[in-house]
């Protein structure tokens, strides 16, 4: 571990670090635009110029005569970095003055305002006034860059992060720099827009407001967005994400850097795939077939200071428990519970332990696992071919659910094996069926309906109306991924915690809360304490006993990995 | 007083003025009051305001109902930056932004505009923070003070109503476009920047 001295503070850095990373470890920010951890180094923005020197073995410090770009300068034992000298400060101020020469300063209408590095760095390192008297160069906005991307050309600082991203990470190389000098612009080839499946990342990469997402354009000012750390449920990669919301409406998803899960990026499928959450088709309240709303008052009332309020959930869950109990007392009755791979580990655990308690012979079944095509690996070759396995930088998985492994681990613990819904056709049909959905799209296919059959009591816990919910005796309005607290286990056995970002619409509730109340457990649903309980109860999920999984998640032991069930 | 804290030492306690027998009679005060009344009667000056027949003089910095200013081409000057909504302590402004209709030549040089701008005149506390926050001098408070309405809904001023306040007040003489802090980049005055043309030779260069 080489020792590096950053502004008189000695720290231990990694031998592969550059000056920016080493300084970051010392808590010192070196401003930069063009450098990005995942991309190649070009050292073109000149924002990270710092003084670098060396501490000789005899203790004398010799500084280099010129400023050097921090992103391009590797460190070694005894490297001395100075970021607070007058020389560096002058350079930073001058660099920013140049970057701002033709920058339009239309912050008031720019979507990046509030999270813009040009704003932040100008505030911290720049000058208050421009000395330019000439009119600024104004350029045409380009809305043809991509289906999801708009380019506000005159805001660009030519860091070329986006260009390098399409060349190095997506491998599709749509973006490029055209012309030279002050005429430089980012552009695409005619009729070759940047529409690859990772294209949305260039918007995040852009340190200024040049590349904007058309989907988010002018929808919300960023300072009103509150963000929750979550996990993308689009596929089994389980990208770490930020869910940005305001007043219970989600405006965008952003990737959260997590080298354990996916790196720095996410795919457009996941990024723009959250809109089903706000669909009008959501089930907004629990209901029991054959009862009207008025009867809700009979049993399900909550008293507070002698005033009674109707509590549809209490009533519905009381009725659910009673009906399950009554139905199972009938002779020849069998109980089946269908789990969804969109459930968190906690929810699967709550439901499985409840079902086992009610009926020890219960059949725990894993519902359909959505699979679409093949794993999609990046960077692509020039002909669109997949890269060699050792060079893969990003993968969009074929398995389109976040937590098959986690739910399977729970089922294996309670039942010894995992039954699949599409392979139980030859078994006797159950008379009491509890089905959990939560799929983002239509999933109650004829095959699923046939496998469930026509039980005497059908309970459906789902987010959308479906043929299944239409014929259900009891429908429980569940929550989408953005409303849940819990744990997802991705394809590689990485357990990540996800946090609720918004409240559920209407009377709907996150599945964890429903199942917690259904199981009549004491207290309130709390993912962290449940994780501890699961970690103690299920050996395969022992790492969950830590409770707090951290921002990056924890890896489960290797044997949890199971291939996708053959169809 | 049980404890003398450090704070109580810093407090200065005022003494009640002592009243002599003359003051205790109250008669001198009564006579001076009557004298004042008689003086006013003799002066013959009207003190009553004949409102609403005669409207009062409103000071120039009075903060009355809002208006949305128009630019030289008659479009709403607001660029929907949400600064006023952010600054508003009463949460009375609600803007919905949209990309400007680029196909329309009238809107060609604008990127963003308010598709909807609703200001709740009842919730507003008339503090003037919106006016101060506006980077393009679009929202202003006028001297119109006599705002009435029959329902709460009609006190929600939308974009058209706020623009009509501008049309009514701008030439009244009382409310000229007050704030004009000059250029703030193309967001505020694209047209002006474009019209500027090349700078005069030698300007801005030393020597």
Walk me through the structure:
The complex is a heterodimer of chains A (567) and B (207). Chain A has 567 residues and is α+β, with helices and mostly antiparallel strands. Chain A has three domains: 3-96, Ubiquitin-like (UB roll) (Roll); 107-112 and 128-222, Alpha-Beta Plaits; 287-483 and 506-544, Rossmann fold. Chain A has 14 helices and 27 strands. Chain B has a domain at 66-182: Alpha-Beta Plaits (2-Layer Sandwich), CATH 3.30.70. Chain B has helices at residues 6-10, 21-25, 27-43, 83-87, 129-133, 159-169, 186-195; strands spanning 66-68, 93-99, 112-120, 139-141, 156-157. In chain B, the strands form two sheets. A three-stranded antiparallel beta sheet of chain B has the order 2-3-5. A two-stranded antiparallel sheet of chain B has the order 1-4. Residues 182-207 of chain B have low confidence and may be disordered.
